[in-house]
Amino acid sequence: MRFSAWQVLKEGLTGNRGWGAHWRDPEPKPAYDVIIIGGGGHGLATAYYLAKEHGITNVAVLEKGYIGGGNVGRNTTIVRANYGLPGNSEFYSHSLKLWEGLEADLNYNVMHSQRGIINLFHSDGARDAAARRGNAMINQGDDAVLLDREGVRAMLPFLDYDNIRFPVYGGLYHARGGTARHDAVAWGFARGADRRGVDLIQNCEVTGIDIEQGRVTGVQTTRGAIKAKKVAMVAAGRSGQVAAMAGMRLPIESHILQAFVTEGLKPCLDTVVTFGMGHFYISQSDKGGLVFGGDLDFYASYAARGNLPQAEHVMEAAMTLMPMIGKARVLRSWGGIMDMSPDGSPIIDTTHIDGLFLNCGWCYGGFKAVPGSGHVTAHLIATGRPHAAATKYRLDRFATGIGLMDEEGTGSQHNLH
Ligand SMILES: Cc1cc2nc3c(=O)[nH]c(=O)nc-3n(C[C@H](O)[C@H](O)[C@H](O)COP(=O)(O)OP(=O)(O)OC[C@H]3O[C@@H](n4cnc5c(N)ncnc54)[C@H](O)[C@@H]3O)c2cc1C
Q1: Which of 37, 75, 76 to mutate to test the pocket of ligand 1 (most atoms within 8 A of CB)?
Q2: What enzyme category does the UniProt record give (predicted)?
Q3: CA of 84 to the centre of ligand 1 (A)
Q4: Chain segment 278-313, per-residue pLDDT in tens
């Protein structure tokens, strides 16, 4: 069924009995052309673009839990293209352009809202860095405006501008940044892939990767063995475990990142704000909750729940930046397993095993990357060559040291920044 205003009207007048399931629940077939391990945003988007752009539809996405149960449904929903380094710059620009046409493309309301994002700075040095980043964004063809303190105050009058340690000097404004409803992105890509013939197999954990004479031949799963000509590992926080099934040791550490949401409030924050000194970011959801987060929990873990010291740290950052938040009550918090790479940038590459592909290392930035990542990973799987927007996401940069993209300037210990 195609969603449209006419369909909503018709269903509204006929008791809403015509809405079907968004996707089928098929049994796994014995063999596929392509298997994608992981039904998160990146796996689903890869399947969608494989079918849509390359006509490859004999594809299965194998998900050990349920669609949307991973980080794609746990993030703070920020979408932006304000990266400064070659490699990241063109990739995130590519992804944002896909976001801008995504709802029409998927025929699905992912609630993409370009409400703008302001990255605050609190020193002269940070202003210089913001100006450099803004110039890089403009050179890439994206938008950036350097706001002074009064420019920020006009948009966000409730911040603590004269905080003794971190007075607000200004901000880098990226008008095309914003948010999207995270679950809807997973559902939209799932529906789009399913409609093109992709099998989405939930409750199907991959437990082994079959390799014969240097070539991948299929996977072992909790629902039996499935053969495949090509297999893509797109398992985000579990990438290290999945790649180990193919004998690979990845330069990835899995860490927990928490997020928080307050009770619903009247509209008070109509843009996204990031506070670099406290590593804190916040927006207001369409339901009214203030959605915010901060740093990793800083120890490797596969438990999708967070610790209290980090919750306290995030609350402190919130109070430092915008004391009015102290009046809001936190409704709930949750955690997700983040695949942290040493330079804070992703990996989208072939591997030393024929037919086996790797997509991981998304760190804090994987939600905004979903359409771009799916698009370029599908291109890589279909053609064997990296897409022009993702030529630098090679795995071997961590072995050679050539081509590292240390976007956040945190060195090779991104996870410890
Ligand atoms: C709290 C939090 C806030 C964040 N905020 C933002 C943000 O504001 N903006 C932004 O851009 N990014 C953000 N991120 C990062 C972003 O959410 C992730 O980088 C991105 O979602 C990861 O890709 P994914 O969607 O494919 O991952 P996931 O949804 O985690 O998908 C991976 C899937 O693989 C499955 N899987 C794992 N192992 C197996 C197996 N053996 N067999 C089968 N399936 C398997 C998992 O069950 C999972 O569903 C945030 C992350 C968190 C946790």
Answers
A1: 75
A2: oxidoreductase
A3: 23
A4: 889 999 999 999 999 999 998 899 998 889 999 999
CA of 368 to the centre of ligand 1 (A): 11
In this prediction, residue 412 carries a pLDDT of 66
The atom of ligand 1 lying closest to the CA of 245 is 41
Q: Does residue 275 belong to any structural domain of this protein?
A: no
**Structure confidence by residue, pLDDT tens digits, 57-98:** 999 999 999 999 999 999 999 999 999 999 999 999 999 999
pLDDT reported for residue 64: 98
Q: Encoding tokens for residue 357?
A: 């592909």
What's the mean pLDDT in 25-50?
Answer: 98
Residue 91: the pLDDT is: 98
Inside any domain, residue 306 = no
> 338 alpha carbon to ligand 1 midpoint, in Å?
7
* Strand 253-262, strand 290-300: pairing: antiparallel
Rounded to the nearest angstrom, the distance between the alpha carbon of 264 and the centre of ligand 1 is 25
Report how far ligand 1's centroid is from the alpha carbon of 339 (Å).
8
* Dihedral sign computed on CA atoms, order 23, 333, 253, 409: positive
Tokens for 245, please give them.
Answer: 């099934």
Atom of ligand 1 nearest to the CA of 221: 42
Task: State the closest ligand 1 atom to the C-alpha of 62, by its place in the atom list counted from 1.
Answer: 43
Best probe residue, ligand 1, of 71, 187, 219 (max atoms within 8 Å of C-beta): 71
**Residue showing tokens 């509204």:** 12
Looking at residue 309, its pLDDT comes to 94
Domain assignment present for 206? yes
The answer to whether position 240 is within a domain reads yes
CATH of the domain at 242: 3.50.50.60
Range of the domain at 31: 26-77+183-252+343-416
CA distance 329 to 261: 9
Distance separating alpha carbons of residues 383 and 256, to the nearest angstrom: 34
Cα separation, 284 vs 328, in Å, equals: 12
Write the CB contacts of 291 (distance below 8 Å, at least 6 apart in sequence).
76, 77, 259, 260, 261, 282, 283, 284, 285
Tell me which residue has its CA closest to atom 36 in ligand 1.
38
Query: Which residue's CA is the closest to the ligand 1 atom numbered 3?
Result: 75
